[in-house]
Amino acid sequence: MEVQERLAGIRARIQAACARAGRDPDEVTIIAVTKYTTLEVAEEVLAAGLVHIGENRWQDVQPKWEAIGERAVWHFIGSLQTNKVKDIIGKFSYIHSLDRLALAQELNKKAASLAEPVKCFIQVNVSGEETKHGLAPGELEAFVRSIADMSHIRVVGLMTMAPHDSHGEAARSVFSGLRRLRDELNGQQIYPYPIPGLSMGMSGDFETAIEEGATCIRLGTVLVGQG
Predict the structure, then answer these.
(1) How many CB atoms lie within 10 A of CB 35?
(2) Are 18 and 25 in contact (CB under 8 A)?
(3) Which of 32, 192, 195, 197 is deepest in the core (most CB within 10 A)?
(4) What are the DSSP calls for 51-73, one per residue?
């Protein structure tokens, strides 16, 4: 099955999830996760009308980025080492894995040369799994306050992942937990602007994520057949 055919089915599922939640499907951005695929698959994603592409290793994405460039909006969705910031800054419009002060400082430093701040999602380990990256929920407010004066970073949302063995309903508490954290953060008005984004939901649980408020869903297997 081609990406275009898979996308039609995915859009129908998004519409149904949004109908159940009383949401507008236009509020949900599909990020095509092409990290285990070829340049040809990434081109197929673009041809299907999707422009948001997610990758997690510069050494793997570099050939795709050099071929596609600004035809796509690039999202860095993996754990980011501080010494790799120099490779991706100015190439990826969104970072979904801001989870520590040292990384924020390096992003802020490297983004100073850009025309606009780098847009970041703060990663939160809502499930508490030891194998996952991200801040503990109780650390979020202090972290946000510690980076609030970094003018070359714009926090646009929060990101989380449900446990690997959870699907659908089992992931709901993780997603609803992230939404509550986002709402609490906005209530504290640490920034002079609202933080709207919720990057959550993957191939096995994106419908539940949408029902709980996801604004970005990261789709690999269900969209491109692998990854």
Answers:
(1) 19
(2) yes
(3) 32
(4) -EEEES-HHHHHHHHHHHGGGSE
Token pair for residue 163? 């446990």
Residue scoring higher pLDDT (37 or 182): 182
At 170, is the pLDDT very low, low, confident or very high (cuts 50, 70, 90)?
Answer: confident
Straight-line distance from the first to the last Cα atom of the chain, in angstroms, rounded to the nearest whole number: 15
What's the CA gap between 155 and 144, in Å, rounded? 9
pLDDT > 70 fraction of the chain, expressed in percent and rounded: 97
Summarised one tens digit per residue, pLDDT across range 49-84 is: 999 999 999 988 999 999 999 999 999 999 999 999
Joined together, the tokens standing for residue 170 give: 């089992």
Task: Indicate whether this model's pTM tops 0.90.
Answer: yes
Distance CA 71, CA 65 (A): 9
Backbone angles phi, psi at 71, to 5 degrees: -70, -15
| Nearest Cα to Cα of residue 107 among 126, 125, 129, 92 | 92
Structure tokens at 143: 């972290």
Q: Is 192 exposed, middle or buried (0-12, 13-18, 19+ CB in 10 A)?
A: exposed
